[in-house]
Design a protein that fits this description.
Helix content: 10-25%
Distance between the termini: 37 Å
Structural class: alpha/beta
Number of strands: 8
Amino acid sequence: MTATPSSQTESDSAGSASAIPLANPVANDAGGLCRGISRMFARNGIWCLPEMPLKGGRRADLMGIDAKGRVIIVEIKVSRADLLGDAKWPDYLEHCDKFYWALAPDLDRGVLETDAFRPDACGIIVADAYDAEIVRPAPTEPLAAARRKVEVERLARTSLRRMTVASDGECAPWGAGE
């Protein structure tokens, strides 16, 4: 991962350099991790969408498709309490070929090695707001062809709807319940 810049040098009126602390442009919250993961995925030909609604009322933090058409879901955790309190994650496995946990670099990932977190079925990504690294690849658990088709079409339609609404807000009320 890349280093996070914490300060920038700027010349003052006397011509000497002074360190000016800068706030991170994107914090290491879920949104920041989403950005870092999306960058890493993009470099590897995986295109994803954040906050993807799933059937059954769940919402994947990131859902994408790789160059081989495999559906990938990433569940982002930025605190130990959020990680330990997540009982819904097994529901995601029926919507993807690969599932990853994504954690901030300072979050202890030891709990992900326990049977409760199914290390045989889940990969691990460590991310910050600038980049990410897969530290344990996710095994491929292939979806049935019909299920993959449904998931890919829902992902495509959601992506296209978001693009359309972003370019023309008047379209926002239409198709929102799909």
